[in-house]
Each structure stands twice: as C-alpha cells, then as structure tokens.
Structure prediction request, 512 residues.
Amino acid sequence: MSFDLHSATVRSLLEFRAAHDPNSVFVLSPESGRQLSFSELGQSAREHAAFLSAHGIAPGAHVGMLLPNGLQAVRIFVATMAASRVVVPLSLIAQAEQLAYVIEHADCVAIFVAHEYDERLRLALQAVKRPVQVVVIDPDQLEVQASEELPDSPDASPQADDVALLMYTSGTTGRPKGVLLSHRNVLSGARFVSESHGLGAADRVLAVLPMYHINAQIVTVLAPLFHGGSLVMPQRYSTHAFWSLADEWKCTWINVVPTIIAFLLADAAERNAPQPVERSRLKFCRSASAPLPPEHHRAFEQRFAISVLETMGLTETAAPVFTNPREETQRKIGSPGQAFGCTARVIDFDSGCENHNGIPGEIVIRGPNVTAGYYKAAEETRRTFTEDGWLRTGDLGYRDDDGFYFITGRLKELIIKGGENIAPREVDEVLLQHPSVLEAATVGVPDPLYGQEILAGIVLRPGAECSESVLTDFCRKRLGAFKTPRYVRYLSELPKGPSGKVQRLRLLDSLA
Prediction:
C-alpha cells in the first residue's frame, strides 16, 4: 500500500481503492445481479456522509444498522465508518427488549433498518428514552449518482485511534457488552486475514455470515477492501444454494462457521449430492467463531476436496487471533493455529506468569487489533486486561512446541451456539420469571450441528408442575427460538459452591 498503514483509516483505505482500482468490482448481489465497484462505493460513501450531515448526525455519533445481508448493509457499514461516525450493528435475531437495551446503552442517534425489521425496531424504540432517527431502506437497492461533482463531506477525516465500530457481544452477565474498536483495530484485523491467507485482488469470497457478526464485518468485508478483492453476498444463507453460488460467482474462498460445515455435510449425505462443481477454483474454506470438531474437519475435506483452515478470533480482537497455515502439511487439526499479527501467551491462573509449552492456563492476547475496552464499562474493562496490558480471553488452553494453540475449555461461562455468544444468565432470568420456577441455571452442552446447545436445569417451586413444552414456549416468546433452551432437566437442587453461587460446570455432572 502506498499510504501509511499505521495511520490508515477506513476512509483512507476506501479512497486508496477508489483511486487505484476504480473499476474493480467490490461487492455483488446474486439476487439482483447488482454490484458496486470501488469507485462507486467511494462515491456512495460521500453521498452517505452528506446525508448524515444534512440530518444533523455529527462526526462521532453512533449510528445503528438493522439490516440483512446485501449491498446496503455493506455500503452503510463501510460508508458510516468512512464518514467519521461509529457503526453499531444490531442483531437480526434480537427481540425488541434486547434491541432497546443496546440502542439505549449505545447512545444511537439514528438507525438504518430494512422494511421487514421496521415494526420490531419501532416496538423497541418505545422503551428508549430519547429520540432516535429511523431511516427505512431496501437492502438490495442503491442509487449511486454518476456525477463526480459532488463535493467531499466537509467533516473532518477520522483518525486511526478514533472509534469506528461499537460491537455488542454477550458477556458473563445477562447484558451484552459494547466492544470499542478503532480504525486501527478493524484494519489490523483485515490486514491479518489478508496476509495470513495470502489473499489478493483476484480473490473473491462467498460472504454468507450475517453482517451483525464480527466475522462477517472484518473477514468478508474489510479484508477484501484491504487486499483489493471482492465478495458475493446473498441476502440469506441457503445450504442448498451454497455450492451453486460459489461456482456461479467464481469464488476462490469461502468463510464459514462450524455449524455451516455441519449443515453442508448433512445436506450432501441426505441428498447423496455430487461433489461441488469447479471446486478446484476454491483455494480453501476458512472456519472460525467456534471450535471445529476434528471429525467434521476431516469429513468436509474428504467429501468436498477443499482444505479447511481452522482459525480463531474474538470480537475484542476485531476477529482474527490464530490461524492454521495455508499449507496442508503444516496444519494441525484440532488447533485454531498459530498467532498471526498479534502476540499470544498462556499464563498461570494464580501468578499470571507465562506458562511453558504444554502447560495449560488462560490464553491472553496483545496487539494492534485488540480493543481498548468496553463502552461505559470501566470496571469490566479493568477486569478484562492484566495489569501489564494483555487481553484476557477467558479461554483455557496450551501452546505446543511448534507454536500452535489448543483450546481445552473456558473460564467464562458463555454458551457459543453456531458461533453466536449467549450469556447463560440472560436465559436464566427469563426462566425465573415463570411462576412455577424456583431456581434455574443454563449451560452449554455439546451439539454436532451448532457446536453447543442450551440445557436448562430447573428446580420447581414446591407443589408446582410445569412441562418442558410450557417452559420452552415461555422462553421462545421472550428470547426468540435461537436462545430458547433445547433441553430442560428437572432437579431437586442446583449444585452450588460455599458462597451459594451456582456452579455451572458441576451442573453438567448433575445432569449426566
């Protein structure tokens, strides 16, 4: 790159691409066949900045987006950051109450929403105590002016350390935390993906992960912007259409989560489908967001003849931390790989000192992709970092003599279902609202499709009766289907420690 990467921002990167690769296609919509080149995206970004200014949305303001995948989601995500505003992606699977909390906590002043989510958003805004501008848009329609006479936005350009993205992720408490990611953070993540995977201008990714997920934002949008590649983004994921899309749009790599790998394997087995055509064009399949079961890893490679690169990242690290090498002979199945672009250690739980290879402990990270902390949560930020500035991931594991990391468990009690974080306490609190429930505790249990599913241990009130279906229906109405427990087990008591705190890992033993 001809600009200083250390001081680069999303705006300077976009301007660089628009100037040096103006006619190269950046993003394509398979539904409509519409596309955006780098120059069109740059023009659209200037229009977007002018729109924000005209509506009183000042630089530094927090702007939400509640959009399905498509051209508009990509455009608004990139253009909002380029315009010196902060993007706040809102989850499409969140219910109105959950949306209201994030919108209020994030101080959103405006939200771009698709028609199909407008009613849910309006319901959520009834609980928000201040005015929020709502802009309803079509996810796949763009009006990009051909004129080059539109002046640049008079707003000041963002700086590398300015916040670009405020990303909410579930924590060990019931409320999600807002991760602050700067322009330097997100572009470092994009750079690490591009360089570790050897990607360039000729590469095109099939982008099927939802745009409210950090993986989609960094890996399938900003990484191609960084290396000058392109992405194909269908509005919705479809197992049946997956391989035909990759073939028709000449994709060279795919980016998925273990759940999608399980879906593709199951679909191929059910239909006895032929191996995907033109699979030789696909260089590799990248898997992240949750551990990939080794049996699925091997089965996918054998079934589809495509190498799988298992990787690992966090929202707090702008996606990438570990990756396996591209060379098949250097990979290690069962490991998310080696640290790339940042530094990792395994530390002792008590002393905080670095452990020798092979000795398990907590994995910590330091690097230019690591967040500075959480929004309006100074105490949570303090607990998340060691005294000498390392990010505590909450993951337990060890490093081998070749520098590969292996994950053995979690200090934190998050449930990771299909690559999405679910706070057990959030589900607990809903279960406890039912009049028949005395105590409730949820925990993640292994699942071959989603990585983990939700199991609830329930202690009923004396004399109360309540069926499993009644409880799951109760949760579904308040949490949505995704966060509703798959399994319910009734217990006489929950396992607790000396302080009376429920011990979730012991809960699994009680349910065995």
The chain has a mean pLDDT of 90.
